[in-house]
Amino acid sequence: MIKNDFIVSVVIPAFKEGKTIQKVIRDLKGSSSYDTQIIVVDGYSNDGTEEIVKEENVEFVSESRVGYGRAIKTGINHAKGDVVVIIDADDTYEAGDIDKLVKPLLKEEADVCLASRLGGTLLPGAMPRMNLFGNRMFTLMYNLLYSQNVTDTQTGFRALTKSAIKHLDLYSDGMGLSTVFLTEAAKRGLRITEFPTLYKPRNNHSRSKLNRFKAGWEIFRILLSGQA
Ligand SMILES: Nc1nc2c(ncn2[C@@H]2O[C@H](COP(=O)(O)OP(=O)(O)OP(=O)(O)O)[C@@H](O)[C@H]2O)c(=O)[nH]1
Ligand SMILES: [Mg+2]
């Protein structure tokens, strides 16, 4: 049964993504079929992000503490919805897929839904080879250690029900939070599903915030120590 009084909260962590944030917000607004709250959590970008976000009439939250995970947790604290969607501000994900992400949760078929890039399409230049290799290794490790069957543990486009989030110990402030969502969900017996999506290269003039080695080491430790 599809409910009508259903709210989706979208959390967008953003640090210096002023070139793309407007498009991400507009794509979300243009494609979500649900009552949607959009929250941008900005790390004092100073590149016009604040002005753009306010002009789009969506919520703007400043977070001075550094970290992708920290920004997401701050966004979750502002979320009023039954479902929380998380997406990057860099326009690398297909924001138009938001309904596909939300539907399995709305239908109560799953508690967590991932937009899988590795199970879908990677456009040329979207993911450096090293990142692809790391993601494959970590995804394999996750599936083996946590008895799951997902194809992209490191996707930044995912949805969780608010009631599921309440049960998770979100202990990472960094890029490792994507993995913590999944190890915690598996430990608590939550249902994880996914669908294939498209991953696009970053805008030429924007910069990745990913420190591959720092993130890789953190993810490795989370996978081992967070084991059930
Ligand atoms: N508020 C805030 N946002 C952040 C911080 N670090 C990263 N972000 C945002 O979190 C999202 C993910 O960071 P990315 O640099 O895109 O990381 P990634 O997707 O793993 O790497 P790419 O594939 O190169 O895009 C982006 O929207 C960033 O702007 C931070 O310290 N604070
Ligand atoms: Mg990104």
Overall shape: it is globular
The amount of helix comes to: 25-40%
Q: CATH homologous superfamily, by name?
A: Spore Coat Polysaccharide Biosynthesis Protein SpsA, Chain A
Strand content: 15-25%
Q: Given the helix and strand composition, which structural class is it?
A: alpha/beta
**Second CATH tier, the architecture:** Alpha-Beta Complex
Classify the fold: give the CATH topology.
Spore Coat Polysaccharide Biosynthesis Protein SpsA, Chain A
**What small ligands are held by the chains?**
guanosine-5'-triphosphate, magnesium ion
Question: What is the structure about, briefly put?
Answer:
This protein has 228 residues and is of the alpha/beta class. The protein has helices at 21-31, 49-55, 68-78, 98-106, 129-146, 162-165, 177-187, 212-225, and strands at 7-14, 35-42, 59-62, 83-86, 112-122, 158-161, 192-199. It contains 8 helices and 7 strands; from the N terminus they run βαβαβαβαβαβααβα.
Describe the overall structure.
With 228 residues, the chain is an alpha/beta fold. Helices cover 37% and strands 21% of the residues. The chain is built from eight helices and seven strands; from the N terminus they run E-H-E-H-E-H-E-H-E-H-E-H-H-E-H. Helix 1 links the parallel strand 1 (7-14) and strand 2. The chain is globular. Bound molecules: guanosine-5'-triphosphate and magnesium ion (MG). Magnesium ion binds at residues 88, 90, 92, 156.
